[in-house]
Amino acid sequence: MFFKRSIQRYGLTPEPDTPYQRAGQLWDERIGSARVQARNWRLVAFSCLGLTGVLIGSNVWQSMQSRVAPYVVEVDRLGEARSVAPAIQNYQPTDGQVAWHLARFISNVRSVSTDPVLVKRDWLDAYDFATDRAAIFLNEYARANDPFAGIGERSVSVQVTSVVRASDSSFQVKWTESIYERGSLAKTEHWTAMLTVVMQPPKTADTLRKNPLGLYVNAIDWARELDGQPAQFGQTGPNHAAAGQSRAGQQSPDNSPPAIPAFDPARAALPTAPDIGPPAGANPAASSTPASGVSATPVPLQKKGAHP
Q1: Tell me: the pLDDT tens digits for 209-240?
Q2: What is the CATH number of domain 93-263?
Q3: Please, what sign has the CA dihedral across residues 244, 245, 246, 248?
Q4: Using CA atoms, how far apart are residues 130 and 269, in angstroms rounded to an integer?
């Protein structure tokens, strides 16, 4: 009764420290440390491999992007450069810059030289500043008024007198045409045009070279001024064959942005011999219209036989 029996409590009894246990613990520490280090290095290697793949993909994507950097050069009236700066995305040319290009556009289309090569060059330059809608107008005008009809006998000199802004996207252009017959001044006419312009920054090197400002004529409406009377737009006649087409092109049924033509000069080669006309049975008024929209390919200007 006075003596307690000893009870073995296994939960509180410390584990006996034997040489076998000490050796096993030392072995586990060595192998476990190596395994943990190997696992960490594997994670680092796979992370570096993934980062390298992302960088390679980024370099490939960047190399496939266009790196054309347009610059705007401002010149004075003498043609000397005043300032050079990169063209920002929302760059808007000044009214003076727009007026110069519009005056050049009118001069290229309306003037007629005695040299067919110059006439062809002027028309090709005009198409570089025209959208698909404006190209339709130019095509109809070229069909109704063949610029090569009087080569060598008739020439037209254009003198632009004023270019003023009429609205946010329209400009009024006035010019004087001096018509010469066999080298003598036959008559003088005064004309007025309303041109609607749009801006689209150039995306290729070829477009940047031809149209650095990205200024395009989208709608054209011109008329001859009568003596003492302002011009009446939308008249019918030989010089207004496509006037209605221009106003129709100002509004798009689906409000889609104007398309910029991709013109191939090789498809409108300058004729080298007289009496070159369309093939038999061809419809000169037909124009190619692909499924994606209206083609802006200009009508090939053809030289007719010289008048006696």
Answers
A1: 899 888 999 999 999 988 656 665 554 344 44
A2: 3.10.450.230
A3: positive
A4: 19
